[in-house]
Amino acid sequence: MTTISSGQTSSGITVSGGDTTIVLSGGTVDVVQVDNKGTLLLNGGDAVGITILAGGGVGVAVGGVASNTSVHRNAYISVSGGKAIHTIISGSGAFEGVTSGGLAINTSIRAGGNLNVGKSGKARGFTVLNSGGVNVGRGGVATNGTVSGGGFLNIAAGGRADAIRVASGGAVSISGGVADAITAESSGTVAVKAGGSMTNAKIDGYVALFSGGVASNTSVGSDGYVDVLNGGTAHGVTAVSGGGVNVRSGGLTVDAVIGPAAILSTGFSRLPYENVAKGGVASSTTVKLGGVLNLQGGTADALTVLSGGSVSVGAGGATVGAVIQGAVMPSGGGILYASEDVSSGGVARNTRLGSGGIMNVVGGSANTVAVNSGAYLSVQGGAVTQLTVLSGGGVAVGSGGLTSGTVIRGSAANEGVGSGGRALNTTVGSGGYFVVAGGGTASGLIISGGGARNGFLIQRLRDLLPQLKFYVSDDFGLPIDAKEAIAFALLADRTLNGLPGNLPSVTGARRPVILGSIYHPV
User: Fold this and answer.
1) DSSP string covering 192-236, please?
2) Which is higher by pLDDT, 438 or 365?
């Protein structure tokens, strides 16, 4: 055993064959080779230019510093309380262990080497590539690292990694640990597994959220792609031009934002998207300019579609509580509307169309739809029930289309039924109008309000719509003059029974609420 004490310096030594060299505080060794069961212990001392070959080992305790170290095949360096600066770990069986307050700075790991960061250990500024690996265990922290070229980073339960760059060919597995501010570049991959959590990531590569894995506040760029698998959850994911999110069966996104896409002189750049498969759920998604939400059997609830955003509801897909509104005129001309298309087998429930919103029901169905001023609903081959058309809203029913239980009220509220279209049980209130073109069909037109007493108006309707049977609300036990009083009585009854009195799809409210207040005499 050799001891280098305070004030002593030793250069060009070799520690081998079971020998041990101890460097105490204030002591220094440089240009050291450790091999063949040799051991170098830095117990407060410093070592510069260490080469560790097969069978050799170096220990760095509190106060010790190892600088410019090369760890080769089947060799190791253990940093427990001390520091290791500018270390290269290369070859199968080569590793660096950092625990108990130890710190590794600017470490390079490659060719089968490993950096293991355990309890109270820290690694800062590492680079891992070419089959090298970094393992962060319980209590360990890794920061400001780069993973590329076949390298990997594994963050186990209780471990943490911050500000990690995942370059082309690099892979990160978050297996119960936490990762913040990851940046995944093209062809870089991140897997978030059970118990794992990823926050504030920027993704131009690929992310898979497995069962029990959670991602929050993820930004998906032009080459990025997030796959939310069964049991995985993404909160606050944002996809911009070309970025995408896939929600598989059992997957869930909450508060996703899809868009905007950049508008070029030739049109949109690559479109951001969210695809929701059967059994997947997108909750509170917002679709912005150029964004596309495809419901391929999945469900979207509390959906908001804004100017230039679009939703496609395919077979087995459904939207619940959607708000579709807004239009924008890009500098290149034209108008980009917010839109929802419901095709065969798709369903839309409780939809509110605001100004600039367009809904096309083609073979699918919609229930409880409110068409507000500046909005438009087209029904071609599909069916819409419990439809309300308000001031300035418009509905067109084409071949094979059907509307049922429609209420049209307010200035310029209108519904037109074209050839092959049908409208059943339509109520036209004050200011509304209803047109049935040649080949169209309507039945059961109910007229209420003050206009029902306008003989000229009623006769004109009969002349223009001879194929209809006309009713007034009196025929159904609702006196014309009592309509508003009955409406208020109905609202009061619901309040007294603790039931909501508003319809969010019509009023735009965020949720159903109990209206009014009940006050009892003292």
Assistant:
1) E-TT-EEES-EESSEEEE-TT-EEES-EE-TT-EEEE-TT-EEES
2) 365
